[in-house]
Specification:
The complex is a heterodimer of chains A (about 260) and B (about 180). With about 260 residues, chain A is mostly helical. Chain A is built from twelve helices and no strands. Helices cover about 80% and strands about 0% of the residues of chain A. Classes of the chains: A mainly alpha (about 260), B mainly alpha (about 180).
Chain lengths: ~260, ~180
């Protein structure tokens, strides 16, 4: 009861009660004198509390507050451009970045799952390489058979493109070296054949072609090549060549020197 | 009726319009000063503590949700400022604040006591000074009509009913001490 009364009184004093409730409280006080006294005491204390005067704060407090506030506002303003800059950045770039990186990830994911087997790539390229080699071989053979020296030269330069020429191409080049009517084509064939000097049949073919060469430039080229290869088998064909009366003197001296250096 | 409620102003402060804190300060500085002064702090310390409350309001402005009234939020900060200050002072072992009650205590024939008009006010201040800090605090909070008991309860961490009972008992104690001082 006591606690109820305490709550009730406070509600009445603070005007929290409705009109009906307030009247109810007042009749309660009339009927119960002991509570009436308690209420009167409390009312005095309540009124006393509200008569309490407090001094006015000084002007210093205002000065201190407003200087604090203005310095805070300055700090905030200093921060504002940064914030707005970042917000501009975020407004203009963030969605794009997010969407961009999302799409990139999706793309990478798709790419990863749809990627062809690693092994098929070399297989396919090998197949493709083989195919081009075949086509090139046919092209070389066809070009070397052409009546035009120009086209035969083209054929020899095509033959240079082989990574590893097969026997058919090498035979065709050797045939060109021995029988082509054009000096330039024959010269080109020698150059092309120097790519395969590690093959015994090529070296053999080069040596055998020495007596067949009539052009001085070809004779000198072959002599240089033989010196470079240190091909002893070439000495005999060169000696035969030296016996020819119509041999150019410069070529003759050159071949003699070559034979010496090979020996 | 104030065109801009405290809560609206505080929400503006929260969103970066710090200028509006000036209005809130003007509205509540006297109440806060009175609160600190009557809690037993001397005037200059009370002014410093008012300043601290507003510094805290600025610092923690993002925590203001606007759900409860601004005054309740402000007074709970004021309470923390008061207790933090006194904790610090007692830790340092130096009593820097001297309340008017402490100054007057023991000077029974103080000039003001002889004057009837100021006598009651003086006695009341002394009576308030003799109350415990909790009771003093709840009386001062209830003195401001803006705070409902529910909000006082929230500030003090108790129920609405408990807040009413505490105010009632604190008032009774105040009256008793006041009468004792009067008859002395």
């Amino acid at each position: 009861m006591e606690e109820k009364f305490e709550i009730w009184t406070m509600d009445y004093l603070c005007g929290n009660l409705s009109e009906g409730e307030a009247k109810e409280f007042e009749t309660f006080l009339k009927e119960r004198m002991e509570y009436r006294e308690k209420y009167d005491e409390l009312l005095k204390a309540w009124e006393l509390l509200h008569t309490m005067q407090t001094p006015e704060p000084s002007g210093k407090m205002d000065d201190a507050f407003f200087s604090m506030l203005s310095s805070e506002m300055e700090k905030e303003q200093g921060r504002v451009p940064k914030q707005s800059f970042t917000s501009i950045l975020s407004v203009f770039f963030r969605p794009q970045w997010v969407i961009g990186s999302f799409l990139l990830l999706i793309g990478l994911g798709f790419g990863y799952f749809l990627r062809p087997d690693v092994e098929t790539i070399p297989r396919q390229t090998i197949a493709a390489n083989n195919e081009t080699e075949e086509v090139r071989q046919k092209l070389v053979l066809t070009l070397l058979d052409q009546p035009s020296a120009n086209q035969r030269l083209q054929g020899v330069s095509e033959a240079n493109k082989f990574e590893n020429a097969d026997d058919i191409v090498i035979k065709a080049l050797l045939k060109t070296l021995n029988s082509d009517p054009n000096v330039n084509v024959r010269l080109a064939a020698i150059e092309s054949l120097t790519n395969y000097v590690d093959k015994p049949e090529v070296r053999q073919g080069l040596v055998q072609s020495i007596p067949n060469q009539e052009s001085p430039i070809l004779q000198i080229t072959l002599a240089n090549l033989m010196v470079a290869l240190q091909e002893k088998a070439s000495i005999e064909p060169f000696k035969q060549l030296l016996k020819q009366k119509q041999l150019d003197t410069t070529v003759k001296k050159r071949i003699e020197r070559s034979i010496e250096s090979i020996i | 009726m104030q065109t801009l409620t405290d809560n609206v102003l505080m929400m503006k402060v929260k969103s970066g319009d710090l200028d509006k804190l000036g209005l809130l300060y003007e509205r509540h500085k006297k109440k806060l000063f009175g609160f600190f002064y009557n809690m037993g702090n001397n005037p200059s310390l009370s002014e410093d503590l008012v300043q601290n409350v507003f510094v805290r309001i600025l610092k923690y402005r993002q925590s203001f949700t606007g759900e409860g009234p601004f005054t309740a939020w402000m007074f709970s900060m004021a309470r923390n400022v008061h207790y933090d200050h006194h904790k610090k002072v007692s830790r340092e072992g130096v009593s820097r604040n001297v309340s008017p009650e402490q100054v007057d205590r023991g000077t029974g024939d103080y000039l003001n006591e002889a004057m009837d008009l100021q006598g009651d006010a003086h006695l009341l201040r002394r009576a308030l000074g003799l109350l415990s800090a909790e009771k003093k605090e709840i009386l001062l909070l209830s003195k401001y009509r803006e705070l409902k008991f529910q909000e006082i309860g929230e500030i003090l961490g108790c129920s609405e009913g408990a807040a009413k009972v505490r105010v009632h008992r604190a008032l009774k104690d105040l009256k008793t001490i006041f009468l004792q001082l009067e008859t002395r």
